[in-house]
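Need residues for this backbone.
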């Protein structure tokens, strides 16, 4: 029986002088794990770096690795760079695309469109600031692409996005209802057609079964953002990294090894770490949980289950 084995990570947030993420070292640790586990592919779930045109060395480390590696666009990947330039730097064929591997269809989604903007513009070069109340969304043409990809696939399907598809509160998709209609219809037509949906963005660890689909909210590989700055890090670190006081950092790179079997079995091998310098979110003047009630922990939990 065919199976597919993936190494997944999210939110590396390479941003020299701003975030203390040690991105090259974390990426190397993730790649070494992928190599040990003999995975079929590595997927980054978005927010890989903030300055793609100034990150050649890190991007070459990612793309030059001998295991096939794929990108999902995050909201910060296009902060300072146009969408076209990011697609070229990330070697992506399009903002959203699919490919077939080991008897599964992997569908890469782009959740970074601005529904309140003219023509449903893509977030890039800071234009999201013009629509501060807009939620991220999936483009209507992309929804049709998703529908066709699911209907026409000869294989069970997996979804990968930056923003959560399952969250109902707290930075969820602006057109989540339309997307869920497509997923429910796909499951109704062919039960078990859609197996797993994985997202980054929220820097949390959570697993939810909904409509027969496993939704994995994948923790950040590097840190959690805190709106209220804290003063627990040494002054030398704060001088070197301007936003470090707005983060609590995981000591080790977090990633997940996900194995899927054709019979509906899914195994998630997570990771355990600790907090850098012992600084936790609970120590700061910030809520201990996000809007969905999910708490910051330096871990990705391991789970094994069957959908059928």
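Answer:
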């Amino acid at each position: 029986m065919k199976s597919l084995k993936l190494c997944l990570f999210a939110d590396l947030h390479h941003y020299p002088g701003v975030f203390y993420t040690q991105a090259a070292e974390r990426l190397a640790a993730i790649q070494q794990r992928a190599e040990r586990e003999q995975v079929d592919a590595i997927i980054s779930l978005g927010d890989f770096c903030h300055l793609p045109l100034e990150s050649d060395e890190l991007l070459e480390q990612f793309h030059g690795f001998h295991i096939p590696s794929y990108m999902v666009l995050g909201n910060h990947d296009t902060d300072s760079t146009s969408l076209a330039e990011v697609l070229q730097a990330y070697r992506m064929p399009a903002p959203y695309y699919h490919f077939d591997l080991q008897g599964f269809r992997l569908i890469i989604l782009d959740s970074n469109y601005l529904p309140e903007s003219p023509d449903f513009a893509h977030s890039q070069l800071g234009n999201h600031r013009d629509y501060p109340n807009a939620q991220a969304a999936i483009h209507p043409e992309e929804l049709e692409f998703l529908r066709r990809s699911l209907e026409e696939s000869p294989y069970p399907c997996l979804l990968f996005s930056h923003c959560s598809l399952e969250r109902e509160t707290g930075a969820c998709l602006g057109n989540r209802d339309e997307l869920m209609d497509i997923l429910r219809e796909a499951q109704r037509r062919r039960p078990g057609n859609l197996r797993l949906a994985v997202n980054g963005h929220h820097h949390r660890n959570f697993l939810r079964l909904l409509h027969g689909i496993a939704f994995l909210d994948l923790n950040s590989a590097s840190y959690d953002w805190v709106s209220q700055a804290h003063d627990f890090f040494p002054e030398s670190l704060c001088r070197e990294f301007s936003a470090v006081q707005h983060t609590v950092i995981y000591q080790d790179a977090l990633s997940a090894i996900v194995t899927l079997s054709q019979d509906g079995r899914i195994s998630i091998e997570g990771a355990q770490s600790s907090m850098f310098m012992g600084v936790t979110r609970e120590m700061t003047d910030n809520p201990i949980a996000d809007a969905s009630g999910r708490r910051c922990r330096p871990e990705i939990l391991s789970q094994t289950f069957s959908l059928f």
